[in-house]
Amino acid sequence: MIPEPRAARPPIAAPGVWRLFAGFLKVGLQGFGGVLPFARRMLVEERRWLDERAFVEVLSLSQFLPGPNIVNVAVIVGQRFHGVAGAVVAVLGLLTMPFAIVLALAAAYANWAHVPALRGAAYGVTAAATGLVIATGFRMGGPIRRRRWQLGVAVATFAAIALLRVPLLAALAVLAPVAVAIAWRTR
Amino acid sequence: MIPNVLMRLALEFGMLSLAAVGGVNAIIPEIQRRVVVVEGWLSNADFAQAFAIAQAAPGPNLLVVSVIGWKAAGIAGALVATFAICGPSSVLTYGVSRIWDRFREVPLRIAIQEGLAPVTVGLVLAAGFVLARTVDEGPGAVALTVLSAAAVLAMRIHPLWLLALGAAAGAAGWL
Fold first, then answer.
1. What are the tens digits of pLDDT across the range B116-163?
2. In angstroms, rounded to a whole number, what is the distance separating the alpha carbons of residues B152 and A177?
3. C-alpha of A28 from chain center
4. Does B7 contact A at CB distance below 8 Å?
5. Mutating which of A80, A88, A94, A123 best tests the B interface, going by the most B Cβ atoms within 10 A?
6. Which residue of A has its CA nearest to B58?
């Protein structure tokens, strides 16, 4: 596949700064239980700022770079259209309202925490949300099933963090370079 | 004179920002370890509640750090923690995004991506496991966790239904 030179790939419809803000504002407000599908819908289907292929690439980049995935998506998309201002505006659009809502919920919960039903509900939500995290892990595991060394790395990482409870930074400092070295050797 | 707790919030979450390979899900056990065990800002119960509130609210699940920051140091804490979890990684992402085209086909970039992919899988699965061990306090909760995971994977049910189910079951005292 021959990569196209940058100039030959015009954006489908370049948004202004305010549109960037508005687009991500909508994504943030919709994202119950997972923001990325809404981001995809906004970017690829509704506003058509990216085509499917570009989105997949942005997503892949967002996931392998550290940091919250959706924030990375906002930074990349914002940067692409309006540099620093675009990145900042996209992230602000994404987070401002949810941030306010979350704090309002936290404050409300603190006031009502003595009600057993509410505490029970929070407990139930946590249990269900934990299941969602596990599901996400397995879904991510799909693409790496084919290579044994990748399975090995995943298992080693799981063992280090979940079973041995090695601090994250120490585990990453060992596992990440080793994994990359293996990938390099088997390329 | 900046309060010590704000500086520590900034430091802890700033470091976690750069360690969050694969997103916030990957660092949840570490967040729990740091805020409950190392810093003592929250109890385990508080942490579980923060997690629930962030899940119930719209927006990304990074907002769990906003609730943690708020519990530790009010609104200032919430702002500092949120900024810290997003800031460092965003700067890095911005820089990489700018020069991305030059590196797309470079073998080292591909090796980095292929190496990190399984690490992130391990991290996220570990996160789920540690969370389950920390927050599930009885067979009912464990069953709900397993059911939710299975429902999403096998039946592709929208996560929100499962959160609602969890809330209802919990409120009814079934867990």
1. 889 988 998 998 998 898 888 889 999 999 999 999 888 878 888 888
2. 32
3. 12
4. no
5. A123
6. A32
- Please indicate whether, in this complex, the C-beta atoms of A102 and B132 are within 8 angstroms of each other: no
- Write down the pTM of the prediction: 0.86
Q: Which of A94, A105, A133 is facing B128, going by the closest CB pair?
A: A133
Of A79, A127, A144, the CB nearest to B145: A127
Whole-angstrom CA distances from A20 to A11, A40, A85, A123, B94 are 14, 14, 10, 36, 16
Q: Cα B171 to the chain's mean position, in Å? A: 24
Report DSSP letters for chain B, one per residue: ---HHHHHHHHHHHHHHHH-TT-GGGGHHHHHIIIIIIS-SS-HHHHHHHHHHHHHSSS-GGGHHHHHHHHHHHHHHHHHHHHHHHHHHHHHHHHHHHHHHHHTT-HHHHHHHHHHHHHHHHHHHHHHHHHHHHH--SHHHHHHHHHHHHHHHHH---HHHHHHHHHHHHHTT--
Q: State ipTM.
A: 0.88
CA gap A165, B17 in Å, rounded: 19
Q: What is the mean pLDDT of residues A58-82?
A: 92
Helix (H, G, I), strand (E, B) or coil at A187: coil
- pLDDT of residue A7 exceeding 50, the answer is no
Q: What is the pLDDT of residue B135?
A: 81
Q: Check whether B104 has a pLDDT greater than 80.
A: no
Measured CA to CA, the distance from residue B63 to residue B15 in angstroms comes to 16
